[in-house]
Amino acid sequence: MEAAAAGRKRAYSIIVPTYNERLNIALIVYLIFKHLPDVNFEIIVVDDGSPDGTQDIVKQLQQVYGEDFVLLRARPRKLGLGTAYLHGLKHASGEFVVIMDADLSHHPKYLPSFIRKQKETGADVVTGTRYVKNGGVHGWNLMRKLTSRGANVLAQTLLQPGASDLTGSFRLYKRDVLEDLISSCVSKGYVFQMEMIVRATRKGYHIEEVPITFVDRVFGISKLGGSEIVEYLKGLVYLLLTT
Amino acid sequence: MKHIFKIAAILVAISVIWIALLESSTVPRSYTWLLPIYLVVALGCYGLFMVGYGLMFFPTCPQEAVLLQQDIVEAKDFLAKKGVDVGSE
Question: What is the pTM of this model?
Fold first, then answer.
């Protein structure tokens, strides 16, 4: 932990990896501050050299909210999600770390429920799940729901992962738990998120879930093609054999 | 490699039961030979049922999209007043 971080003690560090999220990062920061009025937190934006000027917007946000609360810890180019979390962790002074996406599919209004759940249960990991009654998804067509459901049934049967939503990336971790898990995970992309939760279960960490809603506004742009399915199956086999 | 060992152990246990059934003739031989196939089919049916059921009751939240749009308007309003550029996308 860098010397400056030792000077400020936060309860919660919220790490938001960004790439070309010029507008969304501003909206997310506003919403986080709106929904965590009495919480001691900091936001760590890990931007991978966005060409659209995301970092300039973050600097403007620092003028509004303070450099102690909105931290910009950028990287030169896209270097992967796992390392983005690690990079954010290095500059985090929170006892707990929240990871979330910057594209507004994860709504900050659920942050209080993550915090509450962790306080009530003392959990090591609190993960958001879209697939329970008070959760949900918007913006997925039938095919997308089918692949999601099929993938989930397969993963639940084969892996017994200890969570209902394996590929979700809206999570709260105890800081040392996150460090431990990241250092033992090697996958990329959403398989990385799966590996984190499966390893957490295997290592006996206490995992709790909270319902979240997920509004997918980018689905139309990115399609779930055959190569994604192959990657997923490869990831499943890897997790089956190594966890 | 722990979980795969659990699965392997279950498969071994099933195989032992199957071979024991084949050796003793408590169940007719011709029927016993087909038991693994029945098992696979049953598993497949279970899987299909779980997928279909999950698909039927897939939780959706159309109202969230509306709420999100309201949040976006509110956020843009506030930030613009504070001098943050919320113009382009």
Answer: 0.89
